[in-house]
Amino acid sequence: FSAGHGNALSGIMDMNFRKGNNEQNEYILQAGLIGIDLAAEGPLSKSSGGSFLANYRYSTVGLLSAMGVDLGDEAISFQDLSFNLHFPFQQSGGSISLFGMGGNSKNIFEAQRDATLWEFEKDNRDISFTSLTGALGAKWIQPVGAQSVLKTVVVLSSMQTERLDQQLESNSFKIIETAQNFNNQSKVAIKSEYSSDLGGGTLLKGGINLTRTSFAGGAFTSEVSANSLSPTSGWLTSPYLTLEHNGLKWNV
């Protein structure tokens, strides 16, 4: 893949929010096996051409579990929210977009309080897994002349996961061992790219990717007081240049 995607060799995920409807408000409510979904979009101001787009989803299985419906040996729930605000510049032809997404999920497994029903190693444990993730960003696109565009994107993101495992004694069902694992990661990503159509099927792109990653994680048990990684962080700087001519690419 092109150098602008970090010299990826096997695959990339390049996701973008679409603009909301800047002429009229629209609403959608839908339900399926995965979740109940509510979406809305519309103009922020018809005179400016700005628009908003928002979507919220809540898990169907989580709602049914809250109502007391038994859906198996695990209680699963999740919810997420995403939005995109688009502000065009009428005079310069550029635009700024503010976007974000966030969600959480939880899996709960409770051991049977009858040891004769235990068949697998997991059956004598109470296990909970929780996850939080979120991202907030801004994108600025500005035409430069008739054939060139400057695009800059800044994103702040974070992810947290935790797993708690409590082993039970077969007669009293008291907790005899506890294990806890956690992983916290945050990123600041900045990408600025200048692209220009040189004519004759030739496109020139140049830019820089800046990424700061912070990580902390560890594992704790009732027998081992601490086995954690020291918090670490660092910057990765990746300048790049791509020349494309009639489908052929040269990357630096």
Sequence-ordered SSE layout with sheet pairings:
Elements: E1 26-31, E2 35-45, E3 50-59, H1 60-66, E4 74-88, E5 95-109, E6 125-144, E7 148-168, E8 175-199, E9 202-221, E10 227-245, E11 248-251
Antiparallel strand pairs: 1-2, 2-3, 3-4, 4-5, 5-6, 6-7, 7-8, 8-9, 9-10, 10-11
Task: Report what the structure shows.
By secondary structure, the protein is mainly beta. Helix content is 3%, strand content 66%. An eleven-stranded antiparallel β-sheet has the order 1-2-3-4-5-6-7-8-9-10-11. Strand 4 (74-88) and strand 5 (95-109) form a beta hairpin.
Largest sheet data = 11 strands, antiparallel
Approximate shape: extended
DSSP strand tally: 11
Terminal Cα span:
12 Å
Given helix and strand content, the structural type is mainly beta
Uncertain spans: none
Mean pLDDT value: 88
Helix content: under 10%
What is the string of helix and strand elements?
EEEHEEEEEEEE
- How large is the count of helical segments? 1
Query: How much is the radius of gyration in Å?
Result: 25 Å
Strands of the widest sheet, in order across it, are 1-2-3-4-5-6-7-8-9-10-11
